[in-house]
Sequence to fold (576 residues):
Amino acid sequence: MDQKNKFMNPYLAGVLLGFVLLATIYITGRGLGASGAMKSVAVTTVKATSPDHYESTAYYQDYAADHPDGPMKSWLVFEMLGVLIGAFLSGALSGRLGLKLEKGPGVTNTTRIIGAIIGGMLFGFGSQLGRGCTSGSALSGMAVMSFGGIITMFAIFGGAYALAWFFRKLWITR
Amino acid sequence: MLKMAPLIPEIISPEYNYLVALIVGLGFGFALEQAGFSSTRKLVGLFYGYDFTVLKVFFTAGVTAMIGVVLLSHLEMLNTDIIFVNPTFLPSAITGGIIMGAGFIIGGFCPGTSAAAAAIGKLDGWAFIGGATIGIFAFGEVFPLLEDFYLAGNQGPLLFYDVLGIERITFALILTAVAIFAFVATGMIEDKVNKKPVHILSGNWKKKTIAAAIPLAVVLLIMITPSRKEFTMEKLEARAAAGECKPDLIDADKLAFELMNNYYHYNVIDVRSPEEYEEFHIATAINIPLDDLHSTAYRELLNQRIQTNVFYGASPAQAKKACLVARYHGNTTSLALDVTAEDFRNTFYGEINIPENPTKSEQTVALFRRRAAEKMKEIEANLASREKPVQKKVTRVQGGCS
Fold:
């Protein structure tokens, strides 16, 4: 790795992240999350582009009932705004800003973007089925020792390990 | 009296919750980016063995927060009964997890890390966010087909240590040890895959040992020290043994008399187990097991001005303990019944014999007890339809990813 701008020691970064999560639990009683904010965006888009469909679908109406002030007025949307700002500040401090694309050695830019979109679709879909992603279910679940959260964590990482060989051309081989 | 966290909504108004979200998000994003999670090749390195950063950061964060939660709970600064615990639905958790795993290896991110990457200008991060939004939309569209599967196997906010049948702190110790073991093992694998000499056990081993020993030491300290609750009880008992702060006692006949005439002035509390309570309880009594009496959920109930608490249990000692707990939490008028629940039952509902040639007082007592038994049954029957404040009213915080 020929990174000029070195990353933080992973254990130190882990302790920092752990304290952020602990503070969140201490103050609000809930953990961190990420995919929920994307759900807000998805629901908002449906509401804006196809109001009839939005009104007639139970799934969106359930969401609307949980978010009476509109789908964007959600805890996780504000948290994700913070994530974007915080990550931007970190990138600026460490000199890592810039429009870039990171990919395996044998992959074209187009393949990488398509891969990211398909991967995102799967992750988004799975996060809804599994009631949370790596942040909301696996990490926050581990902090409160939730059985479901830790099982989801094993399923995510186990699934990725099991499939890694099949997608090695995306990342390590030419 | 110290109030317990979570701070929202009791100590910090819920209106600030969005501001808190923004601030913790800032810390979250900063930590993710500093850890290198904005780099997709660093993330997937975990699955090919050349870079275990994800495991190190993730496991360290999880263990740090977990030990923090256990420590705060041990010090009674955080009420773990009401914090959000992700509910367990095994079929959907496992299937959803594997689909997410596929998304991880194909897309090279997870939702949180894609946001960190997008924030510093990574185009693949934005592509992933777009894809995730489409995936969530797709789930919404096919939800009716998946609903049964989604809701199958509901086990509620199940905790891992309960599944294993071990103590919370034992589980914390095991998970911490597993994490440290994983750090050493993956450190070796990482160097081997990158064809470097293995350096995890050499080099600055003193520093490394200290780093590994700190979390273990914290967990062990929690294990061997009494919790704040136990500590308080010990102190209270020591004071009671020394003759200070003696709980006031009430005897069975006096209690029965008071219940017959003005039960509404009394808040009778059975501190035995719910099973024992179900089997028999004194008229008007509610059930709060002694172990739960410390819970903040009951503070208000125990401190009602117009009612006097009367505690009873499986032994007078249990009743006295409960009385001391109530006193510790600010109630000064609590009484403890000087006989056991079983004695009370026998006194009134057992066979009441009048000896031959009774003295006047023996006769009065026997007659009183018979009448009291009937009257108490009547009161209990009348109250049977009331709303019982037995269940905890404090609900869990809503959380997760919805």
